[in-house]
# Entry
Amino acid sequence: MLTYLAPNHSFSINKPTEPKVLLNELQRIRQTIIHEGGKIFRQWQPSITRQTFKDSALNLAYYLALRHEDLRQLQLALMPWGLSSLGRIEGRVLPNLEAAIATLGAVCHQDPALLPQRPSLEAFFSGERLLSQHTEEVFGKSLNQRQVRIMVTLPTEAATNYQLVQELVQRGTDCIRINCAHDNAEQWLAMINHLRQAEVETGRDCKVFMDIGGPKPRLGTVLPAKNKQRVHQGDRLLLSKKVPITADAKIFKANCTIPEILSQLEINHSVWINDGKIGARVKSLLPEGVLLEITHARTKGEKLRPDKGINFPDTILHLSPLTSKDQHDLDFIALHADIIGYSFVQQATDIELLQLELQARLCANWRKPAIVAKIETPEAVKNLPELIVRAAGKQPFGVMIARGDLAVEIGYQRLAEIQEEILWLCQAAHVPVIWATQVLENLVKKRTPSRAEMTDAAMAERAECVMLNKGAYITEAVTILDDVLTRMEAHQSKKTPQLRALHSW
# Structure
């Protein structure tokens, strides 16, 4: 028998729970979240100067307090009475609880004076209104029926091919992304000029999202072991601080482009290379770097290639999220970007660092660009509430679920779980989310989508924006994604099914 252990009662699915018992329990939960959530909110208040975010921050605080309890069996006990199961409470914690309490009070003939007042319709749906408002502050107004925005990463070609940019905007792109890890300021400006021209010709607004590169560690020079071109499970790799000069008969060698990271590693820490294709573990710490043992590789082996990314999921890296190149790029980004993508954000002080840099460049207008924090490490997930408050408390803010790095950092088996938790937390804070990495990748690159990625694109409707990466068939992908998202919005809004009439049967 399933039970939920509350302070004064346990709920069973074998017989209905009396409504009076449920009423008392919801009253207790309401008092708890007001008390505990209030304490969290008061700690945040000094960081919040943006008036439109105050109610959202309070709702987030209530949500965190609510989710400290296991409510699963209470949810089951509420269902037979036709009451809210609390399963869609994220955007309106207190109004949802108070509506359920008011209904239970009526069932129990409780004196209304002893109950919280039933929320007005405006109060009950204020979470949806605030999320829509905050999404517009980041991405602008939606110009068609589709509420979920589409973002497209521009290739270098967009600097010289106006027709590509014009077609992307015409087909429904709401935001173009420029990855500042690639190309240069001259090419970025050409892309933006093409976009502005396309906006005039199509009559559609499109935001500019510029992604700061951040301190992404990569392989530098790679020296294979003699007579061996691929690494296999059990092989050794010397990851060094300096560029390797001489090859070794048995050991592969490569340098890390951010050498100070190697001093932060410990024995048995895991290391992943090339988006998780190659796994390794630290065997020993050496003056010149670290010796790794390969733990994961295909049976036929994997090639170690220069410039492939490296992840250190067991290590909390103490690095500034802004490199010297980022500082230089910010001179351009601050003047031209509507939205700034912030890589390698891990703690609240990282948000403050970027805000200070914007103040130095834009003075009183520093709050004008929106910030989007890319969530790609376990540390960022853990600190997400503080990241949200420090950023959204001062300027328009969004979150990108960077599923590529995040999957490597937390493990692929946890990605779906953590993705859901990020979506819930951001909905509680009324903060827009970007669903990113490998969306319709086969379609974009090969013209033929896999069945799984079509389902993934449909699931992306629960975010406020979906990002497509560059590829030969990107314009076709925008058209198809626009169609998929428009269709899904008729069936689903965040976690809530929309019961449109079905015509398949």
